[in-house]
Amino acid sequence: MSLFLIAALPFLGALFPALLIRAGRNAAAASAGFTTLLAFIGLLLNAPAVLRGEVVQARLDWLPGLGLNANFYLDGLGLLFAGLILGIGLLIILYARFYLSREDPMGQFYTYLLLFQGAMVGIVLSDNILLLLVFWELTSLSSFLLIGYWKHLPDGRQGARMALAVTGSGGLAMIGGMLILGHIVGSYDLTVILQHKELIQDSPLYLPALILILIGAFTKSAQFPFHFWLPHAMAAPTPVSAYLHSATMVKAGLFLMARMWPVLAGTEAWFYIVATTGLITMVLGAVIALFKDDLKALLAYSTVSHLGLITMLLGFGTKTAAIAAIFHIINHATFKAALFMSAGIIDHSAHTRDIKRLGGLRHLMPITFTIVVIASLSMAGIPPLNGFLSKEMMLQETVTTLWRDSHYLVPGLAVFAAMFSAAYSFRYIKHVFLGPQRHDYPAQPHDPGIGLWLAPAFLALLVVAIGLSPNILSGPVVSAAAAAVIGDGEIPQFDVKLWHGITAPLMMSLAAVTGGLALLWGHSALARAWNAARRPEAKEIFDALIGAATRFSQRLTDTLHNGSITRYAAIMVVFTTAISLYAYQSGVAAAPTRAVQDAGAMPILGWICLVLATIFIVLDHRNRLLALVLIGVVGLIVSLSFNYLSAPDLALTQISVEVVTIILMLLALNFLPKDTPVESAISTRLRDGGIAITAGAGVGGLIYALMTRDFIAPSISEFHLANSYKGGGGTNVVNVILVDFRGYDTFGEIIVLGIAALVIFALTEAILGSKVSAYLLNRKPDLPQDGDPHPLMMVIATRVMMPLALMVAAYIFFRGHNLPGGGFIAGLIAAIAMLMQYMASGFGWAAERQRVYYHGIIGSGVLIGATTGMAAWLAGKPFLTSAFGYLHWPPLEEFEWATAALFDLGVFLAVVGAVMLMLESLARFAWQPGIQSEHAMDINPARDDAPKTEEEA
Amino acid sequence: MEILFASAVGILTAAGIYLILRKRTFPVILGLSLLTYGVNLFLFATGRLMVNAPPVLNKYAEVPYTDPLPQALVLTAIVISFGMTAVVVMIALGAYLSAKDDQIDMIENTERAGDDA
C-alpha cells in the first residue's frame, strides 16, 4: 500500500465516526477500527521490504519553491513507530468502545482519536521536515481536543490548555531549529539532511539548531523541566492517557531525537544536554511517582521517568545505547499501555483510583490482577519479562558512561531511579490488590467484560512473550529500527537474553529490586516525610507565569489601544509619513525624464471645481447633507478626468459607482444626525490639519515625481497590449485583463464583493432583530417629509426607463470585450435601473415584485465564474484559461464568441446581486408597516379603496 | 497637467485624512471616500497620463495606447471600495442605532475628558 494512503487513511477515517454515530456506538467504533486496521495492514505489507533493509518511498512535489514536499519514507524506525501507533491504536479503539459511558459523545472521541493517529503516522513517515512540523503541530492540536474531551471538567480544560501551551510553544521552538537545519544543509528533505553529519556538526549554527529542536522534543516527551504538563493531562479519559501519554505522543519527542540521532548525536553538547536531562527526568519522575496516591498520577510520573530513561540512552550517543533505547520504547509501550488500561478498569469498576481507598482487590478482580502483576513486574524490571531485558541493557550502558570524569554518577543515579521504579511498581500491586478486602469501596469492584480486558491482556501476553524470546519477536524490528537510527555504520552485534552470567548490570538490578522492596516497606513513613516537605508545585508556577504574561499583555494592549480610533489613525498616518520622509531624505531620486504636458482649459476648469468642492467639504463637513452633495461633485469630476485621461472604462465605472454610493449614504444619513457638533478644540483641528496637509503633500509629490519619470524596467503592460487580441480575442485591453489575463484576481474580487454584501445583510438582520427595530418603528423622521412620497411623474419615468436602462446594460455588457464596458459596469447600470424602482415606487412595491433573492444572484454569479474557470480543466488547461472564436451566421454579421463573456456574466450577476443586496438591506431600516406601497402609482381608476398618502408621515 | 493632477491627488488625500481624524462616524466615512478617490487616482497615474490614447486596440491604424494595467487594477478597486464603504456605513449605522451615539472613539467618558486625540 502506498505510504500516501497509509498516512491519509486515519484522516479520511476521521470523517466516519462523527457521521456514523447516528447509526450507533458500535458502528462508530467499528468504522474507526476498520480504518486503523486497513492502515495497519497496509503498513505490514511494506514491512518485509523494510526488514530486508530497503527504504520505501513516496514522493510528491507540493510546494517545491519553499522546499515543502509531501515526501514520505518508511525505514525501520518509521516501521516501528507506525506499527506502535496503529497497533496500539487498534487496541485503544476496542478498549474505548467499552470504556466510554453512554453520555459521552463517542463519535467525537473517535474522530479526534483518528485525527491524532493520522498526525502521529504523518510524523513518523515524513521525509520532509517542514511536513513533519505540520504533523507535529497537528498532534498538539488533536491532543488538546482529546485531553479536554470531558469539557465539563475544569481539570480537563486546564490540563488540555497546559499541554497545548507547553507542547505548542515547544513546537514553535522546533520550527526555528528545523529551519536552521534546513538552511545549513540546503534541503528540507530528511533523507538528504541525514547524509550531512559533518556539515551540520561543523556549522556555527549547530548549537542553536540543536537547542531549539531539543526544546521541541523535550516538551513533547515531558522531559524536565517541561515534565509537569503530563500528569495534568491525565484528566483525559483513560484510553487517551494510555494511547497518547504512554505509547505514542510522548514518544514523538523520542522519535525525533532518534530520527535526528545520525546527524545531531555524538557531540559533547548532545551528550551533556540530552543525557543529563534524561537522567534528571528519570530520577525525578521515579521519586515523585512513588508518593502519588492517584493511580493515573503514579503511572504518569512513571512514564515521565521512563521517557527520561530513553532520552538518557539516546543522549549517550553510542550505538549500543541507541539499540537499548529502541528496545525500551517497545517494551515501555507494551507494559505501560496495559497498566493504564488496567487503571481505567479499576476506576471503572471501583469508581475510584485513589490507592488509599483501594486494596485487597485480587480476589474480586482476578483477571485485572493477573494483567497488572505481569505489567508491573515488567516495569519493575523482574525477569523473565521484557522490562528486565531493556533495563539490563540500560544499566550496562550506564556502567561504561563517564559524566565529567565520574564513573559512578550515572550508574549510581540509574540504580537509584531503578530502585524507586521497582518500589512504585510493587506498590501498584501491593496497595491495590494485596492486603485485606475492604468494605468501603465506592462501588463493588468486579472484573469487567472481555471488551475492556482483552486489549490489556493482549499487551500483557506480549510482555511475557518478548521477555521469553526477544530475538524472535522483536529482534528483526529492533535491528531494522536501530539500523535506521545508527545510520550508515555497522550495527553492533547485540544479543538480548535473560541470563548473561553474573555481571555488573545483574548486581545493579538486584540492588535496585532489593532497595525497591525496602522503600515499599518504609513507604508510609517516607510518604509522611515527603508530604510534609515543601516542594515547588509546577502547576502553581505555570499558572503564575501564564497569569503574569496575561497581565503584561493586558497592560501593554490597554496602553497602546485606548479605544480611540482617531488616535490609531493619526499614529498610522504620522508614522507612514515619517518613514516616507526618511526614505526620501536617504534615497537618491533620478532626474525627471518625461516632459510635463500642457493642460488645456477643461482640465483647469475641472481642477478648480474639484479643489473647491474638496475645500468646501472640509470646511462644511458639519452640514452632512451638503458635504454629501459635494462628494458627488468630486466623484463626477474624478470620473470626467478618467474619461479625459484615456480611461473610458474607469469613467463609466466611477460614475455608476458614484450613483449607488450617494444613494447608499443618503439612506444611511436618513437615520443619522444631520449635523456634526463642534467637539475638538482649534488646536486639535490645526494639528490634524497639519498632519493631513503634510501627508497630502507627500502623496502629491510622490505621484508627481512618478509621473515625470519613465519606468526603470520594461512594464508588463506591453505584453497585455500585444496579446490582448491575439490571445484573449478582445480589443478592449482593460476588459481582457479583467476577464482573461487577471481573471483569477477578478474572481477573487467578486467573491469579496459578495462577502461584503452578505456581511451587510447579516448586520442588518442582527440590528433589526434587536431592540433597535422597536425604536425604528416608532421614530419620527427628523426632516420634513415630502407630501407625495411616490410622485406620479417619477414613477412613470422610472418604469419607462427600466427596460431602456436594462437594454443599455446589456449593450454595455456585450460590447465590453472590444469597446469600453463589461460585466462590472453593466452590473452597476442594471443595479441602478432596479434602484430607480425602489426609489420611485417604494421599497414594498419593489420587494413584492422581486422574484429572485439577491443572495442567489450573487451565488450564481460566483458559480458561473467558477464553472467557466473549471471548464478549462476539461481542455487540460489551467483554471480560467479562456477560449474564443468567430462565427458567421448569415444574415448576421460575423461575431465573436468567447468563454470570457461567460465569466463576465458571472461578474455581472455578482455585482448586481451584491449592490442590490447592500442597498436593499439598508432600505429595510426605513420600511414601516404603515406605508401602503402596493398603490405606489395612484393612476388605477378601478381601485375602490381610498388612496392613503398622508397618514404614514 | 501633471502638476494639476498631482496637486488634486494631494488635496484629496489631505482632505480625506483630515476628515478621518474627526470624531464622528459620518465625517470619517466622507474622509474615507475622499481618500479612496485620491488613492484610485494615484494608482491610475502610475500608468502615466496620456490624452486620447484609450487602451482599446485600433485594427486600422498604429496609434499610441496608454497603460491598461493600472486601469484594470483601479476598475476593481473602485467596485471593491464601494463594497467597503457600504460595510463601513452599515457598521456606523448599526452602532448609532444601537448606542444612540455616533462617536467613533470608544474610550470611557472619564478618560475622554483628558484626552485630546
Write the layout of secondary structure elements.
The complex is a heterodimer of chains A (953) and B (117).
Chain A: H1 3-13, H2 15-20, H3 25-51, E1 56-58, E2 72-74, H4 76-99, H5 106-125, H6 129-147, H7 154-185, H8 190-193, H9 197-202, H10 206-220, H11 229-232, H12 238-247, H13 249-264, H14 268-290, H15 295-316, H16 319-350, H17 366-380, H18 386-399, H19 409-432, H20 450-468, H21 470-473, H22 475-486, H23 504-521, H24 523-532, H25 538-560, H26 565-586, H27 601-619, H28 624-644, H29 648-669, H30 682-707, H31 717-728, H32 733-741, H33 743-769, H34 772-778, H35 792-815, H36 823-841, H37 843-848, H38 854-874, E3 884-887, E4 895-898, H39 899-924
Chain B: H1 2-20, H2 25-45, H3 68-99, H4 109-114
Helix pairs in contact in B: 1-2, 2-3
Would you write up a description of this structure?
- The complex is a heterodimer of chains A (953) and B (117).
- Helices cover 70% and strands 1% of the residues of chain A.
- Chain A is an all-alpha fold and 953 residues long.
- Among the domains of chain A are: 275-521, no CATH class; 732-939, no CATH class.
- Chain A has a two-stranded antiparallel sheet with strand order 1-2.
- In chain A, a hairpin with a 7-residue loop joins strand 3 and strand 4 (895-898).
- The longest helix of chain A has 32 residues, at 154-185.
- With 117 residues, chain B is mainly α.
- Chain B has one domain: Orthogonal Bundle (Helix Hairpins), CATH 1.10.287.
- Chain B is 67% helix and 0% strand.
- Chain B has helices at 2-20, 25-45, 68-99, 109-114.
- The longest helix of chain B is centred in the C-terminal third of the chain and has 32 residues, at 68-99.
- Chains A and B meet through helix 26, helix 27, helix 28, helix 29 and helix 30 of A and helix 1, helix 2 and helix 3 of B.
